[in-house]
Automatic annotation (TrEMBL):
This is Retrotransposon gag domain-containing protein. Gene3D superfamilies: Designed single chain three-helix bundle. Keywords: Coiled coil. It comes from the Eukaryota.
Length: 169
């Protein structure tokens, strides 16, 4: 093989090496983009995958024990029992959003909520326990029942729930 052919082959190899390096850089860039997109999907809509993975891990670590809301790092809002219906509806909506992402029994939802009653809210709950016979073997009623009692007390019948903003109903 003559010198000219050898130089042409070496030049072609060099060109291929540059193209391979360029392709490697593009692949690395795409890998980073895919990683970022996977992270975004996890934050936006992939919560199900994360929760399924968490549930499997949680079941492995905790067996069938209900760890409740302790498995997430959220501070629960207090309920002060003020007479403004919007205060109650906003509180209710906050709890619904929190409970939506946690696997908690209906009774435990009520327990978590009741422990965050303050002031008039706590006074109201003491009254309900004493005079409405809502406890079942010492346990509070299920979440939906507790909310029904609270709506009856804190949301007047004159408020048409259909016209309230959806964020608080």
């Amino acid at each position: 093989m003559d010198n000219h052919s050898t130089n042409a082959i070496l030049a072609a190899i060099e060109t291929l090496n540059h193209k391979i390096d360029s392709m490697d850089a593009k692949i690395n860039s795409l890998d980073h983009k895919v990683d970022r997109l996977e992270g975004s999907v996890s934050l936006i809509g992939g919560r199900v995958d994360i929760m399924e993975g968490y549930d499997q891990w949680n079941q492995h670590v905790n067996g069938d024990r209900d760890v409740g809301i302790n498995s997430i790092n959220i501070s629960l809002p207090t309920f002060k029992g003020e007479s403004d219906p919007e205060d109650y509806l906003s509180w209710d909506s906050s709890y619904e959003r929190i409970f939506q992402v946690s696997d908690i029994t209906e009774e435990k939802k009520s327990c978590y909520a009741i422990t965050h009653f303050e002031g008039n809210g706590n006074t109201w709950w003491d009254y309900v326990k004493r005079f409405r016979n809502v406890l079942n073997e010492g346990q509070p009623p299920p979440w939906d029942t507790l909310k029904a009692f609270m709506r009856q007390r804190y949301v007047p019948e004159s408020i048409d729930m259909r016209y309230l903003p959806s964020c608080i109903t």
